[in-house]
Amino acid sequence: MEITIIGSGAIGGVLGAYIARAGVNVVFCDIEQEHVNHIRYKGLRIEGPAEEFVVKGEAYTPEELIARNKQLDWVFICTKAHHAQQALDQVCQLINKDATIVSFQNGLIDLKVPVQKKVSEPLCCFVNFSADYLEPGRILYGGVSSVAIGEFNGTSTDRLKVLKNILEHWGPVKQTHNILGYLWSKLSYAALLYATALVDETMATVVDRKEFRPALIELCAETLEAAHVKNVNVHSFDVWRPELIFPRENQKQELLNAEFDRISTWMAKNKKQKSGIWRDIAIRRRKTEVDFDLVPILEIGRQHNLSFPLTKFVIERIKELEQGAKQMSWDNLMDLKKLYEDDVLR
């Protein structure tokens, strides 16, 4: 068995390193030549809360992988959501009908494999552990957190069992009949993370600010309402309990405050203190995954005559931050709070 990691940054790098350390044949693939060279010649360093280790392995750019001209067995697509389809298309010529493709994107992404390839639909993987690509050959790992896998149609298959065995070289993995429930729940949590990235502060600091919590809770409720109209039964994970947020009529302020206190404490203990969204904007100066995470929520709202004003605001403000038209500031959250008080509460 050979596992090919397409996109060997934060998530792909961590999973690939743990799997490779267990003795499984792992091939790393990434568009960054310097990162590839580092893995190939010096190794990939994982800096976690409990341990640090280095693994060496085969590593290629996509062009080098194609020139290698070897059929792929298991393919893990671990790129950012907006690069995933292109990444798959680029190596598609190496995929045969016996290959298994696994999507590690948390957003609403539907990877397409050409029909003539006769490859089974990609497996879905929900990932909630935190990691950051720091520099070539070096990844910060926040520690074990929830991972769940499933077939898109909810069935139980042999390839799911094999995937579970592979991923358990990293840590505990849940096989589920409701992978969409996990992915949609993560989207509602992602809405919160996008809001924390409006400020140049730690996630825990933002979540701890009680004056912003009503707006943040409603922001998350908008995504959960979209899931509801899509008939998705969302699933809790780690410290995230969407059932406390939606349906709105079931909200109890005391429980929500206690829950957000718990989330803030959990975030503060994580080795990764700021979100990948923040890092994309502030450090890597690149686009976030907002078009795949939050923009579809607005489209679902339009289809069902629902207004999601807070989601719309966060999308617009994130795009302004990406373009440099706005700066990270508490003023952004003040604007979100004002919108909530003026448009939602009335």
From TrEMBL:
One of its GO terms (cellular component) is cytoplasm. Belongs to the ketopantoate reductase family. Its EC number is 1.1.1.169. Keywords: NADP, Oxidoreductase, Pantothenate biosynthesis. Residues 178-322 form the Ketopantoate reductase C-terminal domain. NCBIfam families: apbA_panE. Pfam families: ApbA (PF02558), ApbA_C (PF08546). Pathway: Cofactor biosynthesis; (R)-pantothenate biosynthesis; (R)-pantoate from 3-methyl-2-oxobutanoate: step 2/2. It catalyses: (R)-pantoate + NADP(+) = 2-dehydropantoate + NADPH + H(+). GO terms for molecular function: 2-dehydropantoate 2-reductase activity; NADP binding. This is 2-dehydropantoate 2-reductase. It is an enzyme of class 1 (oxidoreductase). One of its GO terms (biological process) is pantothenate biosynthetic process. Residues 3-153 form the Ketopantoate reductase N-terminal domain. It comes from the Bacteria. InterPro entries: 6-PGluconate_DH-like_C_sf, 6PGD_dom2, ApbA, Ketopantoate_reductase, KPA_reductase, KPR_N, NAD(P)-bd_dom_sf. Catalyzes the NADPH-dependent reduction of ketopantoate into pantoic acid.
